[in-house]
Specification:
Elements lengths: L9 H13 L5 E2 L6 H25 L3 H23 L2 E6 L7 H13 L5 E7 L2 E7 L2 E2 L8 E2 L2 H5 L23 H19 L1 H10 L7 H15 L3 H8 L12 H26 L6 E2 L2 H14 L12 H8 L31 H7 L4 E2 L6 E2 L12
Antiparallel strand pairs: 1-7, 2-4, 3-4, 5-6, 8-9
Helix pairs in contact: 1-2, 1-10, 1-11, 2-3, 2-10, 3-7, 3-8, 3-10, 6-7, 10-11
C-alpha cells in the first residue's frame, strides 16, 4: 500500500503544494534591483519543503512516528517564518522585573515612549518579566514617505547558534585559539537567544503581539504538544499508531497515520505559500507571476483538508457535539440532551480537540447518541475506525 490508498484527492494536493514550495523562486518577477531578504525568504521556503518532502517519504515507508517527528520541526520552522517574513514588532524582555515593580516600570516606560523611545508600542508583565514591545525595523523612506519594514527576527535568527555547546561545559570543550571567556560568552548568548526568541512560548508570544496567529493559538499549542509525543520517547505515541498488543503492527500501513501526515503537509505548505505572498506585497515589493493560479491551488487544497481544522478550515459537527457536551466553567456535566443545539453554536465558541490523531479516527465513524438523539454523519465512513 502507498500514501495514495483511499485518501481521495489529498495526495494530489500535497504534491501540488510541495511542488510550489520547492520551485518558489520561479514565481519571482525579477527587476533591476534584487533584495537579499527576498532570496533568503525563498531559501527558507525551500528548506520547509525539504522537511515536508521527508514527511511524505517517511509516511510512504510506514515510518509514521518518525514522519511526525519531522512534522514537529516543520511546525517550528513555519512559525518562525511567520515572524521572519511578516513581524513588525519585537519584544525586549527584562527578566528581573517582579510584579511589585510594575507600577514604577509603567511610569518609566510611559516617559520613554513620550521621549526618546517613540518606537515603544506597548508593554506588559508576565512570569518572564517586563515585556516591552517595539516597532521596527524601518530602512529609510520611499517617495510616499514610508520605508520598508524588515522584521527584527530576520536578523535575530542568526543569534542562536545550536552548535555553540552548553555554557556549563564551555571550559571543558575544545576551542582552538579561543579564550575561555569568549567561548563561555558565545554559549551564553546563544542560550539566551533560544530562551527569549526561539523557545516555543517565546515564539507564540511574539506571534501574539504581531497578530500573526489570530484565533489559532490554542490550535498550535495542541498540535505542538501532540507532535512532541513523538519527539520524546513516549510509549503511548507508538501505541496510538501501531497498537499496544503483542505483536503490534509496527511497520505496517495505517490509514489514519498516513492521512494525518498528508494533512500536515498540505496545511503547512498552503500556510507557507500564503505568508510568502503577504511578504511579497510589503515594501520592497516582490512581483509574483501566476499568483492568482497559485492562490486557487491553495484554496482548493485548504478546502480538501478543511476538516482537519488546523491553521485553516472549520469545525465539523463532531466538534459541535463535543462542545455541547462540555460543561462551561466549573459546572458538572449532565447526561441527556444538551440545552444548546450543536448546529447553533457560533464557531468562536466551539472547543478545540485534544488529540489530533484520535479525533481524525473518530471523524471516520458515524454515530447516533441513544440518550440525546444527536447524530454525526461521517463524510468518509470506515469500518476500522470502530476498532481503534
Amino acid at each position: 500500500m502507498t500514501a495514495s490508498d483511499d485518501h481521495g484527492t489529498l495526495p494530489v494536493h500535497a504534491e501540488r503544494m510541495l511542488r510550489r514550495l520547492e520551485t518558489i523562486e520561479n514565481l519571482a518577477v525579477t527587476g533591476e534591483t534584487a533584495h537579499m531578504q527576498h532570496m533568503d525568504h525563498a531559501k527558507r521556503v525551500r528548506q520547509l519543503a525539504h522537511h515536508l518532502r521527508a514527511v511524505l517519504l517517511l509516511s510512504e515507508a510506514h515510518h509514521y512516528p518518525s514522519a511526525l517527528v519531522v512534522v514537529r520541526s516543520a511546525l517550528e520552522h513555519h512559525l518562525m517564518d511567520r515572524l521572519i517574513f511578516l513581524a513588525n514588532r519585537y519584544i525586549v524582555t527584562y527578566t528581573r522585573v517582579k510584579k511589585k515593580d510594575v507600577p514604577s516600570w509603567d511610569l518609566k516606560l510611559a516617559a520613554a515612549q513620550a521621549g526618546d523611545q517613540p518606537d515603544i508600542a506597548t508593554w506588559f508583565w508576565d512570569q518572564s518579566g517586563m515585556n516591552v514591545v517595539h516597532r521596527g525595523f524601518h530602512s529609510g523612506k520611499s517617495k510616499k514617505g514610508r520605508g520598508q519594514t524588515i522584521s527584527s527576527y530576520y536578523f535575530q535568527v542568526d543569534d542562536f547558534d545550536p552548535f555553540a555547546g552548553p555554557k556549563k561545559h564551555a571550559g571543558r570543550l575544545a576551542a582552538p585559539f579561543w579564550e575561555r571567556k569568549h567561548t563561555q560568552q558565545w554559549a551564553d548568548e546563544s542560550a539566551s537567544a533560544w530562551r527569549y526568541l526561539f523557545r516555543h512560548d517565546a515564539v507564540m508570544k511574539a506571534l501574539r503581539v504581531n497578530r500573526l496567529l489570530l484565533g489559532r493559538h490554542v490550535q498550535v499549542d495542541v498540535h505542538y504538544g501532540f507532535l512532541s509525543g513523538f519527539v520524546h520517547p513516549s510509549k503511548r505515541a507508538y501505541e496510538a499508531i501501531f497498537g499496544g498488543n503483542s505483536p503490534d503492527r509496527l511497520g505496517s500501513f495505517d490509514h489514519y497515520a498516513s492521512e494525518i501526515a498528508l494533512l500536515y503537509v498540505i496545511v503547512f505548505a498552503a500556510a507557507e505559500i500564503e505568508i510568502y505572498g503577504r511578504m511579497a506585497r510589503r515594501e520592497p515589493r516582490l512581483g509574483l507571476r501566476d499568483w492568482d493560479d497559485v492562490l486557487m491551488e491553495v484554496r482548493e487544497a485548504q478546502l480538501a483538508s478543511s476538516y482537519f481544522w488546523f491553521l485553516s478550515g472549520e469545525p465539523e459537527m463532531f466538534d459541535r457535539i463535543d462542545t455541547a457536551h462540555t460543561p462551561p466553567g466549573n459546572w458538572k456535566p449532565k447526561w441527556g440532551r444538551p440545552k444548546v443545539d450543536p448546529s447553533a453554536i457560533r464557531p468562536v465558541r466551539i472547543r478545540y480537540y485534544r488529540n489530533p490523531l484520535g479525533r481524525l479516527v473518530k471523524l471516520h465513524q458515524s454515530y447516533q447518541e441513544m440518550s440525546t438523539g444527536l447524530v454525526y454523519r461521517s463524510p468518509f465512513e470506515r469500518d476500522d475506525a470502530r476498532f481503534r
